[in-house]
Write a structure and sequence with these properties.
- There is one protein chain.
- This protein has 360 residues and is an all-beta fold.
- The strands form six sheets. The protein has a six-stranded antiparallel β-sheet, with no helix packed on it.
- Strand 9 and strand 10 form a beta hairpin.
Length: 360
């Protein structure tokens, strides 16, 4: 892919499109997630524990006040932000983050709050993954709403792989809850005393991207494998995605984790990468600015520093294209903007917000 710089915008030519990458904001401390407010401004979480607002294309100097108590350690900190489906009327949003209790360890939490100007009010913790753990890895934290208004919350295995198959342990799965934090009606394990009621799926290692399919309404995710075996999955009720009993990857030491890539009772990934790309935020393109991308899935990559475009038909990847390989940035989040553009966050101490628009 060729890149040409034009001031604050760079032009890229790919197989399907020529587009500009516009710099919207910079100077963010490891930005993690992006949300679009009805007034045209944007919210950005910084992993170091700050929630920032971008208004009229300018990053506001002062962060949003009133955040819940959180811990910044290892991969943990302030993670995802998602708006209530009726945010325009109730100003309610949800934050995921790492939390620590002395002598008990760290975990993934979700809090609900009301955004009033530049401050959060009525902050309430609605979900806490238990038990806590001693590591600072694999918090996951991605969230998404389904069409019924239930919230999906990803929790990683916390770097303790066997926890992902323990259904009395909230680690290593996707939890489906109400906006009050209760297990959602219709959850697949409500009648099974051996499984926590909030579980929707389990056997997930460390989900880093989550989005809703624009046509089916199903929740799609991606997750990190170990050395190899990054996956894209469709999150379906009651499914076991196999970690660590099946994997396309190996341990970081080079040791074998499992000699199986599939087994009875386990859901195979829709797509996997080996070697790992370290996928992160993801979104389906549903805008009008790039007709040739309509319906394609875009996935950010941290390790391989690129944006991946996937064309999918009948739940099979029929085309894969690497974009922004010349940019050299770790892509942390990918969002479909209300303006019809794709928006990206880069993961660094000088993180940026980018927007992809057709080349002028």
């Amino acid at each position: 892919m060729a890149a040409v710089s034009h001031g604050a915008a760079q032009t890229f030519t790919s197989d399907k499109a020529t587009f500009q990458l516009e710099t919207i904001a910079e100077g963010l401390a490891h930005p993690w997630a992006l949300a679009f407010l009805p007034d045209g401004s944007q919210l950005v979480t910084e992993r170091n524990g700050q929630l920032r607002r971008i208004r009229d294309g300018k990053l506001q100097k002062s962060p949003i006040e009133g955040l819940p108590d959180l811990v910044v350690s290892g991969q943990g900190g302030l993670l995802d932000v998602i708006l209530h489906p009726d945010f325009e009327n109730n100003q309610t949003l949800f934050l995921s983050y790492a939390h620590n209790v002395s002598r008990e360890g760290m975990t993934t939490r979700v809090a609900r709050a009301n955004l009033q100007g530049d401050r959060l009010e009525d902050v309430e913790v609605i979900f806490e993954a238990m038990p806590r753990g001693d590591t600072s890895r694999h918090f996951a934290g991605r969230m998404e709403f389904d069409a019924e208004g239930y919230l999906y919350v990803a929790v990683g295995d916390r770097g303790e792989m066997d926890r992902a198959q323990r259904t009395d342990d909230d680690a290593g799965g996707v939890h489906r809850i109400t906006i009050e934090g209760d297990p959602a009606p219709g959850n697949p394990f409500l009648d099974d005393s051996a499984v926590n009621d909030s579980f929707f799926t389990y056997g997930n290692r460390n989900i880093q991207g989550m989005t809703i399919h624009p046509e089916t309404g199903e929740i799609w995710s991606n997750e990190h494998g170990p050395r190899g075996g990054d996956e894209i999955n469709i999150i379906r009720a009651g499914n076991n995605y196999g970690w660590p009993e099946v994997t396309y990857g190996i341990d970081y030491s080079g040791a074998t984790i499992s000699n199986k890539t599939t087994m009875e009772g386990v859901t195979d990934p829709l797509h996997y990468w080996d070697p790992s790309i370290a996928p992160s935020g993801m979104a389906f393109y549903t805008g009008d600015e790039f007709a040739q991308w309509q319906g394609d899935l875009f996935v950010g990559a941290l390790k391989m520093r690129k944006l991946v475009r996937l064309r999918i038909k009948d739940e099979k990847v029929t085309e894969e294209e690497d974009l922004l390989t010349d940019l050299g940035e770790r892509i942390r989040d990918v969002r479909m903007g209300p303006d019809g553009a794709l928006w990206l966050l880069t993961d660094s101490s000088d993180g940026k917000v980018y927007r992809i628009r057709p080349a002028k």
